[in-house]
């Protein structure tokens, strides 16, 4: 790049930072006359915006140098060999499970009809890949206080068709990693960790996402860091990495990066499938794949956001603990959250789980909060077996899913994301207290 272009870029980025700082200074703070406490949201600064503009000036519109940098930093953060950026966490889940069905894995691959154990209380795209890959979900109940899969029921569920467990760390609360990894080892099952809500959560000092054969992450604006749309697949297994990369990149057999040719050194000297010898390797497809790549501009934001991750996690934990301290005073109304020994939660939200015999219903409390500007969310899809999308699908259910139904009917969550400041959270508990101390008049 010429000196003139370098000078122009520096001037542009200086103005971008000035713009963002001015915009932030002019933004209104929390207004009690028109209160808004979001459940989630993106938190960004002038460096995030400047990095985005920096990448856009190259006008490299697909994956490129920032993607390489982001993937490298993610792999380093997790202490894993491979991280592959995707266009969403949902796509990451699809890629992760699809990779385990790839012929690249030989005899160990998953086959049509194999069963995958999962939780009935979940986000749909943790479960959808099981259907999409021609596999069979087996739904288990969850615990009322951790919201994670009930591990006591897993072993009785396993048959000779059971080949994998695919579950999330719900709301950032690590599932029982010790028990589940042992079950997977004992029964030779794949473990797919959905960490989309759990970036920075740990178990015995290790990041969640490092215990499974393959794991996933989301960078949607609601999550711990954001790239807008975006996600990632993680693994230490080179064959799973190759399969995941192929499925993300149209299913191609070629492993050249975008814009590169001939990495293998024999681009026109392959003989695969029933194609003629010498057919261009860039157009040989080994897997049924998609185009699920992200753009370099998204990756650039991720590179900048990663620098703020530790502070973001600290604020999330502080907000969670603030709410937990408040709700302990009302444990006659609520089932308080629990984490396992050895778990260190990087919370996505604070779940409010109302006792079934409480003198009020969830709908009453949620409507009151929303009327006061406090945003709420259900625990994702509730009991997924009752969702219209799955009414005609084939799956197996273990037990009556009583706890899942209870969460579906009695639970919701509020935000703990870094955009929630002291004034906002003080307002939140004030509104809760108003409702709970004046139940007769609500």
Describe the structure in your own words:
The chain is of the alpha/beta class. The protein has 2 domains: 249 residues, Aspartate Aminotransferase, domain 2, CATH 3.40.640; 133 residues, Aspartate Aminotransferase, domain 1. It contains 13 helices and 14 strands. An 8-stranded mixed beta sheet has the order 1-9-8-5-4-2-3-13, with helices on both faces. Helix 7 links the parallel strand 4 and strand 5. Helix 2 runs antiparallel to helix 9, helix 4 runs parallel beside helix 5 and helix 4 packs across helix 8. The longest helix is centred in the N-terminal third of the chain and has 24 residues. It is flat. The mean pLDDT is 96.
Tally of helical segments: 13
Count structural domains.
2
Helix content: 25-40%
What's the β-strand tally? 14
CATH third-level topology of the largest domain = Aspartate Aminotransferase, domain 2
Q: First CA to last CA: what distance?
A: 67 Å
Overall 3D form: flat
Instruction: Give the percentage of residues in beta strands.
Output: 5-15%
Return the average pLDDT rounded to an integer: 96
CATH architectural type of the largest domain: 3-Layer(aba) Sandwich
In the predicted model, the low-confidence regions spanning at least 5 consecutive residues are none
Q: Structural class from helices and strands?
A: alpha/beta
Assign the CATH class of the largest domain.
Answer: Alpha Beta
Q: Tell me the series of helices and strands, N- to C-terminal.
A: HHHEHEHEHEHEEEEEHHHEEEHEHEH
């Amino acid at each position: 790049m010429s000196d003139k272009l370098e000078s122009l870029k520096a001037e542009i980025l200086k103005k971008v930072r000035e713009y963002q700082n001015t915009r932030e200074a002019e933004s209104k703070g929390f207004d009690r006359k028109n209160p808004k406490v979001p459940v989630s949201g993106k938190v960004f600064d002038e460096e995030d915006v400047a990095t985005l503009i920096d990448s856009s000036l190259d006008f490299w519109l697909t994956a490129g140098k920032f993607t390489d940098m982001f993937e490298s930093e993610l792999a380093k953060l997790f202490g894993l060999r491979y991280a592959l950026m995707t266009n969403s966490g949902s796509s990451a889940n699809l890629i992760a499970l699809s990779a385990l069905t790839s012929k690249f894995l030989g005899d160990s691959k998953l086959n049509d009809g194999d069963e995958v154990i999962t939780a009935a209380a979940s986000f749909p795209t943790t479960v959808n890949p099981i259907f999409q890959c021609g596999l069979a979900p087996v739904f288990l109940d969850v615990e009322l206080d951790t919201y994670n899969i009930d591990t006591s029921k897993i072993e009785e569920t396993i048959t000779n068709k059971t080949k994998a467990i695919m579950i999330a760390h719900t709301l950032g609360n690590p599932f029982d990693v010790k028990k589940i990894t042992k079950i997977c080892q004992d029964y030779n099952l794949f473990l797919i960790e959905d960490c989309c809500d759990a970036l920075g959560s740990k178990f015995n000092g290790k990041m969640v996402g490092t215990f499974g054969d393959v794991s996933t992450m989301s960078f949607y604006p609601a999550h711990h860091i954001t790239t807008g749309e975006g996600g990632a697949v993680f693994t230490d297994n080179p064959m799973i990495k190759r399969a995941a990369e192929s499925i993300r990149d149209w299913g191609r057999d070629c492993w050249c990066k975008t814009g590169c040719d001939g990495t293998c050194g024999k681009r026109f000297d392959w003989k695969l499938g029933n194609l003629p010898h010498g057919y261009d390797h860039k157009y040989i497809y080994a897997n049924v794949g998609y185009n699920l790549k992200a753009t370099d501009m998204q990756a650039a934001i991720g590179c900048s956001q990663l620098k703020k991750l530790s502070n973001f996690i600290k604020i999330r934990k502080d907000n969670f603990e603030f709410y937990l301290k408040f709700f302990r005073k009302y444990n006659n109304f609520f089932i308080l959250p629990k984490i396992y020994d050895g778990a260190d939660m990087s919370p996505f939200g604070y779940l409010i789980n109302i006792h079934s015999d409480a003198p009020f219903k969830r709908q009453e409390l949620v409507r009151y909060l929303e009327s006061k500007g406090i945003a709420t969310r259900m625990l994702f899809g509730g009991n997924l077996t009752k969702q219209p999308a799955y009414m005609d699908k084939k799956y197996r259910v273990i037990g009556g899913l009583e706890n899942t139904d209870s969460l579906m009917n009695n639970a919701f969550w509020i935000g703990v994301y870094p955009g929630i400041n002291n004034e906002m959270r003080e307002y939140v508990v004030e509104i809760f207290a108003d409702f709970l101390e004046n139940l007769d008049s609500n």
